[in-house]
Structure formats: structure tokens, C-alpha cells
Specification:
The protein has a domain of 86 residues: 2-Layer Sandwich (Alpha-Beta Plaits), CATH 3.30.70. Strands 1, 2, 3, 4 and 5 form a 5-stranded antiparallel sheet that branches. The protein starts with a helix and ends in a 6-residue tail after the last strand. The chain has 163 residues and is α+β, with helices and mostly antiparallel strands.
């Protein structure tokens, strides 16, 4: 008898409960500690990077301009490899560029969309032209003569994304 009375009461309670969706919002996220412009400038100079800075008149922010090195990968003198050799070199080339990115030496690489003499670029994020040139010349495509390197210093504001 007790079960007969408790069961309908329990069912009534269950059916009267509204499911509530609760959302949690982080109102004040924990800010990651961002290095001050002065400490960034000091660290970059200690690591041998060429930099200069200025104050953005609109925002009052310190903009740090840093020298990067842009490697233009051009058609080399030795482009007579067969398909198998070319495919192997391309795989090694991609592995080299991936390694440069993963180890922090290069920020971006990619081919050009035409069939011109300049085949692609890599932007090296290293302190000196000598280091950038040495890293670029480790590329198996360059070692084989299929690609040649033309290196130029290039200035850009730190932290600005491509858009």
C-alpha cells in the first residue's frame, strides 16, 4: 500500500521538476602574464636581434619593430632530376621547412602561385643574416641545386598577424 501511494507522489515530483541548463561563464579570466615592452626589448637585444620601437599615437602602445630575414627560394641551376628524385627532394624540403617552423627558426613559408623564377619564400626569425642563410642552405632542395636562395633583411612589427 505504501508503494502505491509513494510511487504516484514520486512520479508527480519527477514530472514537475524542470530541467535547468546551467552555464558557467568566466567573468574575469586569469590574465596571462604579458611581458612589458621594455622587458621584451631587453630580451631581444640580449639575444642579438636588431630592433627599434615607437609609440603608436592612437593606442599609446609600444610597437616593437624587429628585423627578420626573408629567403626567396628561386629556381636553381640543377633542375634536371627525374620524377622520383624530385618527389623525394620535395618530401625532404617539406620536412626541412616543418622542422624550421617547429624549432622556431622560421615563422612562415610557402610557394608562390605562379610558375615564375621565384618559387616561394620563408621568413626566418633569427638574429642574423648569417644564421638565416645557413639554415636556408640546409634545405635539401637547395643542397641539390634545384632551388637557390636570395636572402633579404625585412622589418615587421612583432605580434601582428596576417589577415
Amino acid at each position: 500500500m505504501k508503494t502505491r501511494i509513494l510511487l504516484p507522489i514520486f512520479m508527480l515530483l519527477l514530472s514537475s521538476c524542470e530541467p535547468k541548463i546551467q552555464r558557467e561563464y568566466i567573468v574575469e579570466p586569469c590574465p596571462e602574464e604579458k611581458a612589458s615592452a621594455a622587458s621584451q626589448i631587453k630580451e631581444l637585444k640580449e639575444r642579438g636581434f636588431e630592433i627599434f620601437d615607437y609609440i603608436d599615437e592612437e593606442t599609446g602602445d609600444t610597437i616593437i619593430m624587429k628585423q627578420y630575414f626573408m629567403a626567396f627560394l628561386k629556381s636553381g641551376e640543377n633542375r634536371n632530376q627525374n620524377k622520383e628524385e624530385t618527389d623525394s627532394l620535395q618530401n625532404l624540403h617539406m620536412a626541412h621547412l616543418g622542422r624550421m617552423y617547429e624549432e622556431g627558426y622560421a615563422d612562415i613559408s610557402g610557394p608562390f602561385g605562379d610558375d615564375g623564377d621565384i618559387r616561394g619564400i620563408t621568413i626566418y626569425n633569427v638574429p642574423t643574416l648569417k644564421i638565416a642563410d645557413s639554415l636556408a642552405h640546409l634545405d635539401p632542395m637547395v643542397k641539390s641545386g634545384r632551388l637557390a636562395i636570395e636572402m633579404h633583411p625585412w622589418w615587421a612589427g612583432m605580434g601582428y598577424p596576417l589577415r
